[in-house]
Structures are given as structure tokens and as C-alpha cells.
């Protein structure tokens, strides 16, 4: 995915969406833009450049213009959730300067508590749901399990962050698959996937590392401490920045930016979604 600050989605991607899809995404994008901009007509990019904006609704129309040939369609509950997420992500990435930026961004209180509570999330025991434990000290950084009993036993033996990987896989009507499909189609890039991370205070997890994708993190419940910057892996660089995400917050982590996460003592647990955009091939 290569969303830029200048371009709108490709016409080919828009042509595959219905009028209902686009309207719901435009509404979410406009709400995000209006919230973040505070109604201002001038916005400053992360690199300090001033940018003069259209009103939120007009800008959302530019990001997601109507495409010829789209038909009317009533969205399912999963479709509505997916459209909200895709429209919000599209607007957030645009605000950040595109997926090529090297500046992380934190947007507080983007998702309402009621929206988060209504979002269906898989459990480790979900049949055929790939799950993994993240490790900083074991023989490998990722220990995968397909059996929920084995996963539970491994976690109890040594508590580590649990990841339910690609939660929309094999469930084409789920919000996760639909949101991934919307964002993949709009970008014309690699498939966009969603994974769910669960952890408790003092759970082991990955050490500081970069990812081969642009990460969009939505905090679902609890809190998470994040440390971001090249100083994590290079002592010659400035110290890393630190930010805490609470339920409803959105955090954008640029591709290849070193980061690590920890679950604070209060409230002692965390659940967050990560959407992987613009993933490197191979």
C-alpha cells in the first residue's frame, strides 16, 4: 500500500466498491478529519510543512470519490464495522503523510467505547485460528500453535504475548476480511491483514524490532506502553519516544521503525489490533 498525501485511491479499486461501501467510508473519514483538525482549515504535516485543507466532508469526498457503476447495497453489521475502520485508517494515513513517512503518529480516542464493545473478536480456541506466542528469550521469537489446549499450556508455562494472526482468514464475511479487502482494493497493493494481540502485565514479548509493514494499531481494551525510535537499536541515535495507548486510540508505526511494547501494571492487561499495510514481499 502506498497512500500518499496527494493522491486519491486508484479508479480500479473504487470501481469494485458499492455506493454503500463508499458512503460509509467517506462518513468515517470525514469524522476522523473533523476530529483531528478541530475544524481548522490549516494543518501542519509532521515535517513542518503547512497544508491548507478543505472542510472535512469535501476532503473525504476527494479521498473516496464516487465511482461510476457502483450500485446501492445495504451493508451488514460486519460491513459497517469494516467500512468505518477502512475509512478511518485511510484518513489517518493521509494525515500522517502516507505510508512512506518515518514519523509515528498517535491519535487518541478515535474509536468510541460502544463501537469497540460491539466488535466481534476471535478467541484462541476458535477452530483453525492461527495463534502464536511472542518471545524475547526462547529459541525463536514466535512460537505458533493451532491447538488451543497446547497454546494455553505453553502460555501458563511461560506467560508471553498472544497473537491471533490474520483474523479474517477463511471468513470472507467478517469485518476483518472486509476491511482488509477494502484497503487492499483501494491501494492496489499487497493484501492488508489484521491480527489481535493480547497480553498481561509482565508477559514476555518481542524485543525492540522493526516491521516489514506500516502498522496501524487500534487499542481495543486495557493500555499499552510503546517505545519508538532508532535509539532502541542504535545507541548513537536519540533516545526513543514513549507513548501509551488507551482503549480507542490509534497509533501509526512506520515501516522499518524500531519499536517495542509493554503492558503496564494498571490496568494490567491489553488487547490491540494491528493492521499491516504496505507489507514487503518475501
Question: What would you say this structure looks like, in words?
Answer:
The structure is a single chain. This protein has 2 domains: 92 residues, no CATH class; 165 residues, Sandwich (Jelly Rolls), CATH 2.60.120.650. It is built from 7 helices and 12 strands. The chain is globular. The protein is an alpha+beta fold. The strands form 2 sheets. Strands 3, 4, 5, 6, 7, 8, 9, 10, 11 and 12 form a 10-stranded antiparallel sheet that branches. A two-stranded antiparallel ribbon has the order 1-2.
Write the layout of secondary structure elements.
Elements: H1 11-15, H2 19-37, E1 42-44, E2 50-52, H3 56-63, H4 77-96, E3 105-107, H5 113-118, E4 131-134, E5 142-145, H6 148-157, E6 162-164, H7 175-187, E7 193-200, E8 214-228, E9 241-246, E10 250-253, E11 259-262, E12 269-277
Antiparallel strand pairs: 1-2, 3-10, 4-5, 4-6, 6-7, 7-12, 8-9, 8-10, 8-11, 8-12
Helix pairs in contact: 2-3, 2-4, 4-7
- What's the tally of helices? 7
Q: Which percent range fits the helix content?
A: 25-40%
Structural class: alpha+beta
What's the CATH topology name of the largest domain?
A: Jelly Rolls
**Taking Cα atoms only, what radius of gyration do you get, to the nearest Å?**
19 Å
- The CATH class label of the largest domain is Mainly Beta
What is the level-2 CATH architecture name of the largest domain? Sandwich
CATH-assigned homologous superfamily of the largest domain = Cupin
Q: How widely separated are the two ends?
A: 15 Å
* Silhouette: globular
Amino acid at each position: 500500500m502506498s497512500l500518499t498525501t496527494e493522491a486519491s485511491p486508484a479508479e480500479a479499486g473504487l470501481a469494485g466498491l458499492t455506493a454503500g461501501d463508499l458512503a460509509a467510508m467517506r462518513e468515517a473519514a470525514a469524522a476522523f478529519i473533523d476530529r483531528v483538525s478541530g475544524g481548522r482549515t490549516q494543518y501542519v504535516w509532521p515535517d513542518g510543512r503547512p497544508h491548507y485543507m478543505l472542510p472535512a466532508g469535501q476532503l473525504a469526498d476527494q479521498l473516496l470519490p464516487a465511482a461510476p457503476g457502483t450500485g446501492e447495497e445495504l451493508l451488514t453489521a460486519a460491513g459497517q464495522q469494516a467500512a468505518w475502520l477502512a475509512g478511518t485508517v485511510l484518513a489517518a494515513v493521509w494525515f500522517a503523510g502516507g505510508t512512506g513517512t518515518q514519523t509515528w503518529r498517535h491519535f487518541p480516542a478515535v474509536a468510541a467505547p460502544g463501537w469497540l464493545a460491539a466488535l466481534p473478536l476471535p478467541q484462541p480456541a476458535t477452530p483453525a485460528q492461527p495463534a502464536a506466542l511472542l518471545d524475547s528469550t526462547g529459541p525463536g521469537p514466535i512460537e505458533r500453535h493451532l491447538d488451543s489446549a497446547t497454546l494455553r499450556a505453553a502460555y501458563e508455562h511461560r506467560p508471553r504475548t498472544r497473537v491471533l494472526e490474520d483474523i479474517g482468514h477463511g471468513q470472507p464475511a467478517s469485518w476483518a476480511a472486509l476491511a482488509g479487502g477494502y484497503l487492499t482494493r483501494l491501494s492496489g497493493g499487497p493484501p492488508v491483514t489484521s491480527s489481535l494481540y493480547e497480553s498481561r502485565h509482565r508477559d514476555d514479548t518481542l524485543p525492540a524490532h522493526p516491521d516489514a509493514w506500516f502498522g496501524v494499531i487500534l487499542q481495543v481494551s486495557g493500555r499499552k506502553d510503546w517505545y519508538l525510535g532508532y535509539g532502541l537499536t542504535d545507541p548513537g541515535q536519540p533516545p526513543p519516544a514513549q507513548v501509551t495507548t488507551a482503549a480507542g486510540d490509534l497509533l501509526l508505526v512506520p515501516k522499518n521503525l524500531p519499536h517495542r511494547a509493554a503492558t503496564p501494571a494498571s490496568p494490567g492487561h491489553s488487547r490491540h489490533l494491528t493492521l499491516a499495510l504496505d507489507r514487503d514481499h518475501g
